[in-house]
Amino acid sequence: MKVIVGGCSVSDYTGADVERVYGEILAEKIGADYIHHGAGCGSNYRIWRVITKMVMNNEIDKDDIVLIQYTNVNRQEFWSANIANENYRFDEHKKIEIREQKYNGDIIRWKLDAHTWHKTYDEEQKFFKLKQDFFTSSEFDEEKFEYNHFLFHNLMMSRNIKVAYFVPDGDGGGQMGNYSGNNIHLFNKNGEIHITNSMSFEYPGAYLGDPGHFNQRGHEYVARLLEKFIKKKQWI
Q: Where are the domains positioned within the chain?
């Protein structure tokens, strides 16, 4: 049995104190192997790409548990002919890969305002700025998200794969809810199972390393929440 997590930096080793993420902790609790596909600055398109590839390769079966943590719908990934060296491939803590070397280049990750910090190559920075100013529509991004999710979810159902969608909410001035919470109506059409955590009922802020990410205590809390959910669903 495997626990497979797809997500953005919310599900990744984000923050100086985070040594173990919720998916890793959960897998240990229920005696499963862990497959990590959380990615700093990651997009829903990356989630669909890597998880669908696993399904195509028969690397996921009905005994496994897939947890999807969707992120902002406008995020994208692009291929670049530039290959960054290791100094530019990881975050400041050297824990999170922010660009992936593939196909004789790098797959680079884009989100709003990425041009303000993504400065490794001039042409990438200019491209990111143009993408934001002239080639981004929230309404179109929501439309694309809705039908791509429909295809993804029905693929998982056709293979009898246990999948649930984890939607953070609660503290952080609403920041955590921005990670798919504002778009939950777009992926609630086919009887999807949603897991929504609330970080505000006890010690506001205690589970957050910053307004948009969990600290180590937060990852441990989410793992307990998910373990309770999985046992209630009798998935193990």
A: 2-74+142-232
Q: Was domain 2-74+142-232 assigned CATH 3.40.50.1110?
A: yes
Bridge partners, residue 65, by sequence: 3, 162
Rounded alpha-carbon distances, angstroms, from residue 224 to 21, 23, 37, 201, 221: 12, 10, 20, 15, 5
Is the pLDDT at 170 greater than 80? The verdict is: no
Closest Cα partner for 62 from 1, 6, 139, 7? 1
Residues contacting 136, CB < 8 A, separation 6+? 74, 112
DSSP structural state of residue 97:
B
* Residues present in the chain in total: 236
Of the pLDDT bands very low, low, confident and very high (cuts 50, 70, 90), residue 196 is confident
CA separation for the pair 101, 39 (Å, rounded) = 14
In this prediction, residues 200-206 reach a mean pLDDT of 63
> How far, CA to CA in Å, does 211 sit from each of 56, 199, 220?
36, 11, 17
Give the H or E element holding residue 86: helix 86-89
